[in-house]
Amino acid sequence: MKTIKAAIFDLDGVLVDTEYYQWQGWVRALKPYRVTLSKEEYFEYAGKRGDIIEGELAGKYSLSVKKGSLHEAKKKQMLEWFSSEKIKLMPYAGEAVEFFAKKRLKIALASGSPREEVMLKLKNTGLMRLFPVIVTGSDVERGKPYPDIYLLAAEKLRLKPGECIAFEDTQFGVQSAKDAGLACFAIPCEYTRKQDFSGAGKIFRDLKEAVEWTARHYKL
Fold this sequence. Notes:
By secondary structure, the protein is α/β, with parallel strands linked by helices. The chain has 2 domains: 6-17 and 87-217, HAD superfamily/HAD-like (Rossmann fold); 19-84, DNA polymerase, domain 1 (Orthogonal Bundle). The protein has 9 helices and 6 strands; from the N terminus they run βαααααβαβαβαββα. The protein has helices spanning 19-30, 39-42, 50-60, 69-84, 93-102, 115-125, 148-157, 171-180, 207-217, and strands at residues 6-9, 106-110, 133-135, 164-168, 183-186, 202-203. It has a 6-stranded parallel sheet. β2, α6 (115-125) and β3 (133-135) form a beta-alpha-beta unit. α1 (19-30) packs across α4 (69-84) and α4 (69-84) runs parallel beside α6 (115-125). The longest helix has 16 residues, at 69-84. The mean pLDDT is 95.
């Protein structure tokens, strides 16, 4: 039975119910260009860092836009929403983090969103106190699906990547964690269920099921 020393969590779609806002943020950013991004079309982007999504959207719709402008418009809208609207937690979110903390595992957050946005979500939901280590898309040169964010999280935890497990809701997050050398479990949400999770160590319906399985199969 393998021993793990840390649990690292993604934020959007794993701990907080915000994938709808992520989609709508891009919808608002694209509106001036008369582009409609459907929910189904957004499925292929969920989990990637904003600058990567911007480049792919601009290319797909042949948009002549200043680099960074779509992403900035989206970020501005997200900050407005998360400053004023109550964010819902995903089922068992707080309990999952606290379970591993009580087992004396190190805990970290690895979110591809900009730092200001991440901090707003954590404060809004009361999750801030649970994360001594927080790594965001603002802290790395390359966002998910690249491994940088998980490599940095493991470094900040002073652990080898192989001593950590990750919980993700997108194929791009899974790829990021796996390429960094972590075991990664997937908990797909409404916006990511059609993505390819063949790279995940295991796929779960929710965090509760994921935590219970991990407790049975790993030495904590």
